Amino acid sequence: MKKIHHYHRRFRLSMMKAGVWAAVICAFVLPSYVEYEKTGNNFFTVSLNGVSVGCVASEALAEDYLMEARRQIAAVNEDLVFIETDLQIKGEEILWGQVDDTEQVIANMVRVMEEHVKETLQRSYTVKINEVSVNLASSEEVHELLIQALAPYDTQQEYEVNLVLDDTREVNVLTTQLQKKEDIKITDDLRLSAGIQTELDMMYQDDVEPENIGFEDYELGLVDIGYEDKIEIVEAYLLEEELQTVEEAVNLVTKEQETQVIYKVQSGDTLSEIAIANNIPMEELIAINDALEDENTTIRVDQELVITVPEPDLSVIWKDEQIITEDYEAEIQYVPNDDWYTTQKVTLQEPSAGRRKIVAVTTYKNGQAQSREILKEEIYAEAVPKIVERGTKIPPTYVKPISGGRLSSRFGSRSAPTKGASTNHKGVDWAVPIGTAVVASNAGTVTKAGWASGYGYAVYIKHADGRETRYAHLSKVLVKAGQTVSQGQRIALSGNTGRSTGPHLHFEIRINGVAVDPLKHLN
User: Fold this and answer.
1) DSSP string for residues in 327-388
2) What does the DSSP 8-state code read for residue 137?
3) E strand or H helix at 174, and its extent?
4) Is the Cβ–Cβ distance between 474 and 437 less than 8 Å?
5) Please, are residues 446 and 481 in contact by the beta-carbon 8 Å criterion?
6) What is the spatial distance between Cα 404 and Cα 421, in angstroms, rounded to a whole number?
7) What contacts 502, CB < 8 A, 6 or more positions away?
8) What value, to the nearest 5°, has the Cα angle with vertex 123 and ends 119 and 125?
9) 104 close to 32: Cβ distance less than 8 angstroms
10) Crossing angle for the helix pair 139-150 and 246-254, nearest 10 degrees?
11) Other C-beta atoms within 10 Å of 302: how many?
């Protein structure tokens, strides 16, 4: 029994020595193995987007490796890169486990991330003009767009476009600044020169009176140019398919498209003249203006109408200075007459054109002249002005002589409605029941009240502005010749007398004895 016990002690001692040697060997030979400790999970298997990328000793290391992998990808990409990254970490508590080399884990992550690039956003520039935006790949392309927009007007490429910070904005927004290249050179030369004498010379030049400047001293050609619209340029990160080429951007911002603007009616305007002058079909002009019922709707001075004009999104305003020898007209001179209505005028002197030489600056918007300023003038032959005497009194208004009614026949040419009827209708007809009240369209004096052949029973009224109104086919006359009536006063009842095809009122307005379209003169 003693021998067995001695053997058992020797066996235990040998096992202890073997364990010590094993620990020493592990410490020096296998440094990548994790020492087993009773501290919870100490070995972590890492997957990225479902692909295994290695084993690490802690979750924090896995997160650090992912950040380093992102940094490496970003370092080789100038553009903004978005990548799907689903990092999965599975932990366990083990006695022995081999973790992977740091560089290898990071390299594995980079490879997986490169295979899962979702989208690459390129650094680019968005150019905003009013409600229109274009996206370009570089500031050079933005500059090229702006230069090409000027090119049709700055044919000699005299002006330079610079992108500068917009000091009216709190965020970093660029806008445009245009300078004449010659002015930039002069400014640079001034900085290099002694400066004082040169600046004094330039101040003296600025103080020279215009009358002392000869025609040869003026700067001719393009003297100023700029964009009418506010331009905002911001940096952005965009997908490649969202970018436009310079050619596409130029076409987009410079092509003409219909734009609605307000037109204020001038004295003497008619709807047809407005439509023709602005190249708008009459039907379209009526459709976009609620105040217009048809082409016969009366319009008044200073009334605002909506019209459409072709304009690009990016308009260019430019000024051209030229010496011009031309015939010219003097401004019309008006002589007021307080006893006349504004509809009355007489020419007292006919005009005669003069001849002159001028220096003029004409302002253009795109290709259309907007205004002209005369800087210097030399008269060869004085123009004789037109002199017109005109009234100052506001003329009386005319109202529809009945309430309701259906417009059954307009003014002008028509097919004869019955045998013997005129094919040139001198008034308008409203179909109404017999006995409908007829009122005076305007105040005046009754010159006829009774039977008038084809008119049947009729009333004629002479008005203060020299016009005459006629009311025909009446069933009953309620006034007498020589009687003064007020506007809106009942003068008759409608009927079907005379040469008539049915119950209606025939109404005329005559100016200097000539019948005119009543619908153009009714308020």
Assistant:
1) EE-PPPEEEEEEEEETT-EEEEE--B-EEEEEEEEEEEETTEEEEEEEEEEEEEEPPBPPEE
2) S
3) strand 174-180
4) no
5) yes
6) 25
7) 431, 496
8) 125
9) no
10) 40
11) 9
Q: Is 56 helix (H, G, I), strand (E, B) or coil?
A: strand
User: How many C-beta atoms surround the C-beta of residue 213 within 10 A?
Assistant: 14
Alpha helices in 193-245 (DSSP H): 196-206
Residue with tokens 């005028």: 345
Q: Do residues 86 and 62 make contact, with C-beta atoms less than 8 angstroms apart?
A: no
Write down how long the chain is: 523
**From the centroid of its chain, how far is CA 443?**
48
pLDDT tens for the chain, 523 residues: list them: 444 444 445 555 555 555 555 554 554 444 444 444 556 888 999 999 889 999 999 999 999 999 998 888 877 766 566 677 889 999 998 888 889 999 999 999 998 888 776 566 678 899 999 888 999 999 999 999 999 999 999 999 999 999 888 888 777 899 999 988 887 655 555 455 555 455 545 554 555 455 678 888 888 999 999 999 889 999 888 888 889 999 999 998 888 777 777 888 887 788 888 888 878 888 888 888 888 888 888 888 888 888 887 778 899 999 999 999 999 999 999 999 998 888 788 999 999 999 999 999 999 998 888 899 999 999 999 999 999 999 988 888 899 999 999 998 888 876 666 655 666 789 999 999 999 999 999 999 999 999 998 899 999 999 988 899 999 999 999 999 999 999 999 999 999 999 888 999 999 999 989 999 999 888 7
- φ, ψ at 430 (rounded to 5°): -120, 125
Beta strand 231-238 pairing with 257-264: unpaired
Find out whether 402 and 494 touch, Cβ atoms under 8 Å.
Answer: yes
In the numeric block, the tokens 């380093």 are attached to 68
Task: Pull the structure tokens for residue 482.
Answer: 């020589």
Instruction: Compute the distance between CA of residue 299 and CA of residue 278 in angstroms, rounded to an integer.
Output: 17
| Gyration radius from the chain CA atoms | 46
CB neighbour burial string for 23-39, b if at least 16 within 10 angstroms, e if fewer:
eeeeeeeeeeebeeeee
Give the position of tokens 């911002």.
253
Using the 8-state DSSP alphabet, how is residue 134 labeled? E
Strand partners, 214: none
Q: What single letter denotes the amino acid at residue 425?
A: H
- Hey, what are 502's tokens? 């049915």
